Fold this protein.
Amino acid sequence: MELINNIDIAAQAIGAGKLVAFPTETVYGLGADALNPLAVAKIFELKERPSFDPLIVHIADLQQLEKLVSVIDERVYRLAAQYWPGPLTMVLPKSNRVPDIVTSGLPTVGIRMPNHKIALELIQKSGCPIAAPSANKFGRISPTTSAHVKKQLPRVDFILEGGKTTVGIESTIIKLTGTGFQVLRNGIITQEELEKILPFDGNSILEEQSAPGMMKSHYSPGKKFLIAQGAVLKIEKSKAGLISFSGNLEKGCRKVIRVSEREDLKDYAVNMFEALHAFEDDPDIDIILAEPVPETGIGKAIMDRLRKAEFNWRHSLNHVGP
Ligand code: TXA
Ligand code: MG
């Protein structure tokens, strides 16, 4: 593994079929030439990601979009004009240029244009679209710094340094339907915001396989993690690390990370994965707690991630409390 600042070296590596972890505005991605199936296969291997879970393809301009997608309707351009570059992924019908390994055999491909100088320059200099999942081991906490990538993927060829990411949670993923759009993954671009451009389609039923990567467990820390509500509020907290938002739950906790000084949900998104990593690495902490927030707007994306992070640990609820 080499940590580098030089985008030319990173672009050459992509061209040579190697893997480069790089910053985006959301989280760090683990990138490879999206049109090179052997390079893409290395992503699945290094991440230990199941082959049924497709990858997002990152582009730097709309010409690339046109080559990757078989039919583009005017709604795509409207959304792109408003949100690209930015944290919005659109699932669109794929062209036959996109290798099946990228889309896990699906007829659709997820595409986004990241709003990050280094990422865009890397794509431009590589001269190809870049397939990239988040640069973490499958099912584990997403990376918002190069150190988080190094911790989980020490065998990656290169990591491009880009500091801490500014959005902190992954892109909103939408699928266009006959009458509007559906949300496959919540992010900081909310359904309400998208509805200003396109109607939300609450009626069409998504086939199970149209969102193969939406597992119940994800973002899972390597030590016990619970959302601080209900019975969890009564547990012994002397070895707890609390991810705190309002400040109201901090009493009795061994350590606290306050994710926002001004109680802004955007700050929760920016800092939540970093806080999870910090407590995961902290030998003083045996259990990680996170304060829940109301499920509206960005709160939906935050609660979605907290629930998935908690999923594998929830069984331990039976053993806590008085
Ligand atoms: O912000 C992000 O989206 C980050 C940065 C690196 O761009 N990437 C990211 O990738 O979060 P990943 O692989 O961790 O999550 C992508 C999700 C997966 O759950 C996958 O199943 C879904 O997108 N996905 C990708 N292509 C899809 C498709 N054609 N249809 C449905 N879901 C798709
Ligand atoms: Mg991921």
Summary: The chain has two domains: 2-194, 224-319. The first strand starts at residue 2 and ends at 4. Residues 24, 26-27, 29, 53-56, 87, 89, 91, 103, 106, 108-110, 114, 132-134, 170-171, 173, 184, 210-214 surround threonylcarbamoyladenylate (ligand 1) (CB under 6 Å). Residues 94 and 109 are 5 Å apart (CA to CA).
